[in-house]
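To whoever is covering the structure queue this week,

Two jobs came back overnight. Logging them here so there's a record in the thread.

Job A:
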Amino acid sequence: MVIELQVALEEWPPGPKYLFDSVGERAFFESFYAHPLIPIESITESVREKRMDFLKKCITHNGSPEFTHNLRFHIYDLANDWMLNADEIKSKEVITLFQKGLDSEARDILKVMENMELLPYELFDVAVARIRKWFDTNEKEDLMMRSLRMSFMNDRMMKCIRESKMEVVLVSPDDINQLMRQVRICLNRVQSNDQAVKINHLAVDFEKLIMMIQKSCF
């Protein structure tokens, strides 16, 4: 499955051996007769991280022409075989799909996630990037849009927009607003802390801004 993913998605660490420790290398890449049977359940943390990074890179191809359902099954089968946190891979998949504007597919995955941890904050980054993309695309030719931006954004919102670097596709204000609402829904599923409260307040402020954008567009 590893080699099939590497070939199909062109994700090439330095060969399949890269994803195994010395014991795994002997077990899988040396002649069966050259060594005794060795238990391979226990691996080092560095190998575990390499495996997780590899599967995360593979899952970012979701939404691309070369990505198939079969390859997706391989990714999660490997995560299970390697005893990795599947929700961590799903988080990466969700972010990738929202970046590509595949919101429906992303929400389908959100429904089956158990542990979200940092996901709400990453979703917020995507939502802010969508707003930045919208302004970058529209305000150059629309003085009303520029005025709207200056009138309804506070310093904290401005800072978020300035610091946003994530690449996203252009989507409608309605899709932006739905994602911002999704951020607040996800925040309700994680432990409350100062950061969660801050992001929730910002999300509410951005929702108000997006509503004004929607009104100006119709």
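Job B:
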Amino acid sequence: MSHSGHSSLPSRLSSPSHTKRQSELTSSFRSGLSSHSGHSSLASSRLSKLAVPLHTSNVIEGQLKIKYSGGAGLTAGYCRISSVFITVEMLPSVQITNWDVLPAETPSQFYLVLDLTNMTNHEMELYYTETKCIYMEGKEPCRIPVPVDRCPLNKLSMLNGNGDIGELQKVCSEHIASLVDLRWQLLGTESTGKATLSGITLTQDMLDLVRMSPLQWGMFY
């Protein structure tokens, strides 16, 4: 993946071609996924094994009632009522399909690698850090590396060392969801929104990268 900002993103991610555009942000790039080879195929296969969408469509059903009257009936207090049943399917504008965790250049951070798809028919601008954005065509997928601070020990201390993997995953998942800010805007419109990572699941290997190391250093005499 071509990435402006962190130049030494782990080589397991490939570098797709892209077209830069003018932006008020310090860096931006056009989305696109390229073929993977060598070590890059490893990241692709790891991501594909986690192909579980975080969000599905929501169906809302309702009844629209129309009451109307006129003429002599209105004067006499009569009216007619017509009912129409409506079903609305709500789909997310941004769909997260795959995710993985990779080491960052600094020990205090990791990369959350996300595969996303613009589910709309419009060109979209997706902001994934304060200074970086990506442009996506309608129905186009992309892959982005989001730098995230590792989960601090004070958040993990509440686990009391009981080794409950479910609680550990919950704490780390909530930590990621609280820090990752995915904001989108459909170009040429006033439509904006935010993609959420609530409910993301993590494997044991991912948890080892997400949480801070419990090692403590000291001087012995």
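Note for Job B: Confidence is low (pLDDT under 50) at residues 1-45, 48-54.

Please reply-all if you pick these up so we don't duplicate work.
Q.
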